[in-house]
């Protein structure tokens, strides 16, 4: 399987019953479970406290704390590789092409511009509904193709607010 750490370091990892190989080299590791989410590991005469902080099985990602430092870890297996080659990977399957108004309201502010690259969770616009300001966030990463509303527009539920490329 392929393991990516902090979107910076890539490793090829093989797990066997009593052995771990990283990039073809077998590692000599001594580990002890401290709890369901914590381990103590000895590797090359160094001590590591490892804790699983967050786990997303669907996205095959996790956040791991090693000696107090957080690491973002992504995992791809042979099935992910096959799906990618067939063009059926989860990144294309979950691609959102448009953002619709979740409720009727008034567009107070548009935070993004056409052509702007956004990440999942980025704020897109502010919609006032029932005297409350609601920040509409991006459910996916992508490029804002077209903004279909203006500041001050009244919108209905399910009206398309913007489109992604």
From TrEMBL:
Keyword rRNA processing carried by entry: no
InterPro entries: Biotin_BS, Biotin_Carboxyl_Carrier/Decarb, Biotin_lipoyl, Single_hybrid_motif
Pfam family, one: Biotin_lipoyl
Keywords: Biotin
Annotated ranges, domain Lipoyl-binding: 96-165
UniProt superkingdom: Bacteria
UniProt key word Ubl conjugation: no
Protein name, entry field: Acetyl-CoA carboxylase biotin carboxyl carrier protein subunit
């Amino acid at each position: 399987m392929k393991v990516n750490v902090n979107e910076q370091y890539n490793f090829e990892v093989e797990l066997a019953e009593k052995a771990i190989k990283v990039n073809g080299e077998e590692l000599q590791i001594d580990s002890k479970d401290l709890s369901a989410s914590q381990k103590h590991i000895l590797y090359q005469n160094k001590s590591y406290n490892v804790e699983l902080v967050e786990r997303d099985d669907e996205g095959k990602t996790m956040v791991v704390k090693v000696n107090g430092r957080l690491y973002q870890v992504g995992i791809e297996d042979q099935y992910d590789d096959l799906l990618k080659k067939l063009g059926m990977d989860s990144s294309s399957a979950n691609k959102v092409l448009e953002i619709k108004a979740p409720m009727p309201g008034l567009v107070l502010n548009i935070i993004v511009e056409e052509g702007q690259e956004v990440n999942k969770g980025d704020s897109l616009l502010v919609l006032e509904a029932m005297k409350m300001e609601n920040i509409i966030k991006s459910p996916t990463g992508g490029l804002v193709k077209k903004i279909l509303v203006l500041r001050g527009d009244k919108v209905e539920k399910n009206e398309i607010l913007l489109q992604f490329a």
